[in-house]
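Researcher: I'd like a candidate sequence for this fold, 128 residues long. If you have to choose between options at a position, lean toward the conservative one.
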C-alpha cells in the first residue's frame, strides 16, 4: 500500500554541465483551509534549472499527497513546498506557481522563487 510521505527523493542530474529547464505540472494538489477546514484545490507548476540533483517524480507525488489533510494558508503552503524542494535538490533556479481554485469568489495564485547565489540565467534567445 502506498502512503503519503514528506520525503523527497532525488537522482543525479544527467546533464549537470548544462542549464536546462524542467517543468512539472501537478493539477490535483489539495490541502485544507485553516479557518474552515474546507478543502482547497490548486494546480502547482514547478519550473527549475537543476544543479547536481533532480527531484524524483514518484516521491514528489507522495510528498504533494501528504498535504491533503493539513490546514495551511495558500501563501504558507506554497513557500513551504518551495523550501522543501530547494532543500532536497539545491537547484540553480526554481519557481513554484500555485494557482488555487475559486473560494468565495476569489482566485489566488502564489508565485515563489529561489535563485542560487551567483547563478544568472542565459540571455533570452529570439528566433526570427
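Model: Candidate sequence:
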Amino acid at each position: 500500500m502506498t502512503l503519503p510521505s514528506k520525503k523527497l527523493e532525488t537522482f543525479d542530474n544527467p546533464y549537470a554541465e548544462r542549464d536546462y529547464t524542467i517543468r512539472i505540472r501537478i493539477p490535483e494538489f489539495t490541502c485544507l483551509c485553516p479557518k474552515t477546514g474546507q478543502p482547497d484545490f490548486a494546480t502547482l507548476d514547478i519550473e527549475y534549472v537543476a544543479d547536481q540533483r533532480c527531484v524524483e517524480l514518484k516521491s514528489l507525488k507522495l510528498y504533494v499527497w501528504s498535504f491533503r489533510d493539513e490546514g495551511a494558508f495558500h501563501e504558507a503552503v506554497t513557500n513551504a513546498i518551495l523550501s522543501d524542494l530547494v532543500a532536497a535538490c539545491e537547484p540553480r533556479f526554481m519557481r513554484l506557481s500555485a494557482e488555487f481554485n475559486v473560494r468565495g469568489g476569489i482566485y489566488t495564485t502564489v508565485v515563489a522563487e529561489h535563485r542560487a547565489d551567483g547563478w544568472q540565467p542565459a540571455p533570452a534567445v529570439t528566433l526570427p
